[in-house]
Design goal:
The complex is a heterodimer of chains A (251) and B (336).
Chain A: E1 3-14, E2 17-28, E3 32-36, H1 43-50, E4 58-63, E5 66-67, H2 73-78, E6 81-83, H3 96-108, H4 112-117, H5 122-136, H6 152-164, E7 170-174, H7 182-197, E8 201-205, H8 209-215, E9 218-223, E10 226-231, H9 233-238, H10 240-247
Parallel strand pairs in A: 3-8, 3-9, 6-7, 7-8
Antiparallel strand pairs in A: 1-2, 1-4, 4-5, 9-10
Chain B: H1 2-30, H2 33-58, H3 66-84, H4 88-110, H5 115-135, H6 137-140, E1 146-147, E2 152-154, E3 157-159, H7 162-184, H8 187-204, H9 209-235, E4 237-238, H10 245-258, H11 263-279, H12 287-301, H13 309-318
Antiparallel strand pairs in B: 1-4, 2-3
Helix pairs in contact in B: 1-7, 2-7, 2-9, 2-10, 2-11, 3-4, 3-5, 3-9, 4-9, 7-9, 8-9, 10-11
The chains are: A alpha/beta (251), B mainly alpha (336).
Chain lengths: 251, 336
């Protein structure tokens, strides 16, 4: 498997705190990788480094062989890396469809001139792709509702649809199951597997151990900014360091 | 489908019929110069409010210096006409481009500022431009203002009647508002709205946020400049006081009262705040207090505006025929 994303000895320092400390890992084309770790382990920081929201202090991140650390988030996104956020960030005063269309217009693009004259197929493309993304998350019936009026669980799917409208090759999900109950989490797990089998490489940060253990092919474990394990779920489950740092010693 | 097409066609024809047939016929019948001035002022302020709406209501940048760009356009058109013999045909685009060029220079350093800091920066820019108009006497003639005796010329043909001037102003305002309508009611417009909602998140969607903000600011200033040129040619006399801070606030009030984010709302706000004080001339000085009350209560009871963004977008989508409905459910969503 060729490496799609390479995180090469990456560190991020916030003042005196090493939020991410010399982490090296890769994500292969077509993989479904989980990233876990206790609170404050640096999971979200690592995601922010990959998506360009936080600059790296040292080290390098490469996407398909090309260095992306140091690029603007919008540029990284347009290369095919799209993400969701830990604390739901839909556009509340826009309709569900319009929310999704922002992902599509970010990827496809529409210049002011094209918007005025309508003289290109882009609007049609954006409309079609947004509709397809909404169909994937089964939210078409809410297309004209304001995102703010959507139930919490549905807003999660809306955020994923918006990321999907960008037609990403690598989808980074930051705690998608946070705040969901058990049956909703199971439904989400099935949905993520479905996305993965449609050909999208997925990287997933999660607190919910059950979700990660059940769907991920490989799990990277962070603790206090350092990588302490990087293996299949069965192996990670047995790893002594992981058990101590994350699952608790009593297991 | 065909029924919707008819509805939107009827609406568009009705707007054009009022603007280009009923209203000018009424004005010609009444034949008062003063009424022409009021109506043209309302049209010009409609364009100012709609252009500010693009930046403030849609892209979410609180802009407190819009009148300064309006002034730049007015001065470019008036000085080009009075001192250099450059008529309306060339002066009009020059006014728009000049205002957009200044907007570009100003936008580069300020667009990275957020919320209230951006507002204060635009306040400062507005003041600077006002002070330049006021004090650069050799060029702008300072507080005395500029007299423009030439009428509107269109490719060699001179428009000298009030009715003719009305038609020129109405056509240009209508075309300009149409352009801003197309921009805002499109996926480009959705991208602008996403900046207002959460610009960091928009960034993660592959949207070049700084570039988009600069574009919106320049387009908005371009049309403020166009409005300025129209004003210079309709009154024949401009002075710096026409473009001071209170004018920026007046335009902002139109946008807020009409409904932040709503293009038709901006027009309604402009019509209300121009026509109401004129209609109340009969009651004397108390009219300003009445206008103040109307403003106060409209915001108190309709904080989202007289025609807020959500109903306005629904209206434009459903009745104005701007929606995309090529989907299996035939839902009217997105934009064509």
């Amino acid at each position: 498997m060729s490496a799609m994303l390479e995180v090469d000895n990456v560190s991020r320092r916030f003042g005196g705190l090493m939020a991410v400390d010399s982490v090296t890992t890769t994500v292969g084309e077509g993989e479904l990788v989980g990233l876990i770790g206790p609170n404050g382990a640096g999971k979200t920081t690592l995601f922010n480094l990959i998506s360009g929201f936080t600059p790296v202090s040292s080290g390098e991140i490469r996407y398909r062989g090309e260095t992306i650390s140091g690029l603007k988030p919008s540029v990284i996104a347009s290369k095919g890396v799209s993400r969701t956020f830990q604390n739901l960030r839909v556009f509340p005063n826009m309709t569900v469809f319009d929310n999704v269309s922002v992902g599509a217009v970010g990827a496809i693009g529409q210049s002011p001139w094209q918007a005025i004259t309508g003289g290109s197929k882009r609007a049609q493309q954006i409309s079609e792709r947004s509709w397809e993304a909404l169909e994937k998350v089964r939210l078409t019936q809410y297309a004209n509702d304001l995102a703010a009026n959507l139930a919490y669980g549905k807003r999660k799917y809306l955020e994923i649809a918006r990321a999907l409208a960008m037609n990403p090759d690598l989808l980074i999900l930051d705690e998608p199951a946070a705040g969901l109950n058990d049956s909703e989490t199971a439904e989400l797990a099935a949905f993520i597997k479905e996305l993965h089998s449609s050909g999208i490489t997925v990287m997933l940060v999660e607190h919910d151990m059950g979700l990660v253990m059940s769907i991920c092919e490989r799990i990277v474990v962070l603790a206090s900014g350092r990588k302490i394990a990087d293996a299949e779920p069965a192996v990670v489950r047995q790893n002594r360091e992981v058990l101590e740092a994350y699952l608790g010693v009593d297991e | 489908m065909s029924k919707d097409l008819i509805t939107s066609a009827v609406l568009k024809i009705a707007i054009l019929a009022v603007l280009f047939a009923a209203l000018p016929a009424l004005l010609a019948y009444l034949g008062q110069g003063y009424l022409y001035q009021v109506v043209m002022l309302a049209l010009i302020f409609s364009l100012l409010a709609v252009s500010l709406q693009l930046v403030t209501g849609i892209a979410g940048l609180l802009h407190l210096g819009h009148a300064a760009f309006y002034g730049v356009g007015a001065y470019i058109a008036a000085l080009a006409g009075a001192d250099y013999g450059i008529g309306f045909t060339l002066g009009l685009p020059l006014a728009g481009l000049g205002a957009a060029a200044i907007a570009f220079v100003v936008a580069l350093p300020t667009m990275r500022l957020v919320s209230i800091y951006f507002a204060v920066a635009t306040l400062g820019i507005g003041q600077m431009i006002f002070l330049v108009l006021q004090n650069w006497v050799e060029v702008t003639k300072g507080p005395n203002g500029v007299m423009l005796f030439t009428g509107i010329d269109l490719f060699g043909y001179t428009v000298d009647s009030e009715l003719g001037t009305y038609f020129v102003v109405a056509t240009i305002v209508c075309a300009s508002i149409w352009v801003i309508h197309r921009l805002s009611h499109s996926y480009y417009g959705n991208a602008l709205r996403s900046l207002r909602e959460d610009d960091q998140c928009a960034d993660a969607m592959g949207i070049d946020t700084v570039r988009l903000k600069i574009e919106a600011f320049m387009i908005s200033s371009f049309f403020a400049g166009i409005a300025g040129a129209l004003w210079a040619y309709t009154t024949g006399y401009i002075s710096p006081m026409d473009f001071d801070f209170s004018e920026s606030i007046l335009i902002l009030a139109m946008v807020v009262v009409g409904g932040l984010g709503s293009i038709p709302g901006a027009v309604i706000g402009a019509l209300l705040l121009i026509l109401l004080p004129e209609a109340l001339r009969g009651v004397g000085d108390i009219r300003n207090i009445i206008v103040g009350f109307v403003l106060f209560f409209s915001i108190l009871f309709l904080p989202k505006g007289l025609f807020g963004e959500v109903p306005a977008l629904n209206f434009i989508r459903r009745q104005f025929g701007s929606a995309w409905q090529d989907n299996p459910d035939k839902q009217k969503v997105g934009w064509k």
